Amino acid sequence: MGRGMKAGKRAKQGNASQRQQMAQMQALQQQMEQVQAEIDKMETSASSGGGAVEVRVNGKKEILDIKLQPEVVDPDDIEMLQDLIMTAVNEALRQMEEISQNEMNKFTGGLGLPEGMF
Q1: How far from chain centre, in Å, is Cα 40?
Q2: 116 assigned to some structural domain
Q3: Which of 21, 22, 40, 100 is the most buried (most CB within 10 A)?
Q4: CA within 13 Å, CB half, 21
Q5: Distance between CA 63 and CA 102 in Å, rounded?
Q6: Residue pLDDT, tens place only, 29-53
Q7: Which domain covers residue 75, as residue numbers?
Q8: Which CATH number characterizes residue 44's domain?
Q9: What is the number of structural domains in the chain?
Q10: Residue 16 counted as domain residue
Q11: Residue 115 belongs to some domain of the structure
Q12: What number is the average pLDDT over the span 84-102?
């Protein structure tokens, strides 16, 4: 130890640094929660069959609405309707995933975190 240094002085500086890092991490977590809350409120929609089926989802990836045009409802071709619904749902969910990733990347872009971590 150098002259005038007391034992444990470095540890106090380390503790201050750790407290500062913890405070930064907590602030970062709060910001991320805020971004996620904003994403959860977002909505997107997708259609299939030339607009015969439309599906709307939110950022929580919950289906909010499914609209069917009357002409797509054919009791003799249920499989086509099922395929159209599945296609529209999958596309709406894919779009929301892309929106979510873009919003998170805006937030995490300057943090040097691995892509796809959130």
Answers
A1: 8
A2: no
A3: 100
A4: 6
A5: 20
A6: 898 899 999 999 999 999 999 999 9
A7: 9-110
A8: 3.30.1310.10
A9: 1
A10: yes
A11: no
A12: 96
Tokens matching residue 35: 């971004």
Find, among 87, 40, 46, the residue nearest to 59 by Cα: 40
Please tell me the pTM assigned to this model: 0.72
117 lies in some domain:
no
Question: Are residues 92 and 45 in contact, defined by beta-carbon separation less than 8 angstroms?
Answer: yes
Tokens encoding 27: 């602030």
The rounded distance, in Å, linking the Cα atoms of 118 and 106 is 12
> Residue 96: how many CB atoms within 10 A of its CB?
22
Band (pLDDT 50/70/90 cuts) for residue 108 is confident
> What is the edge-to-edge ordering of all strands in the sheet holding 63-68?
43-48, 53-58, 63-68
Number of H helices, E strands in the chain: 2, 3
Q: How long, in residues, is the chain?
A: 118
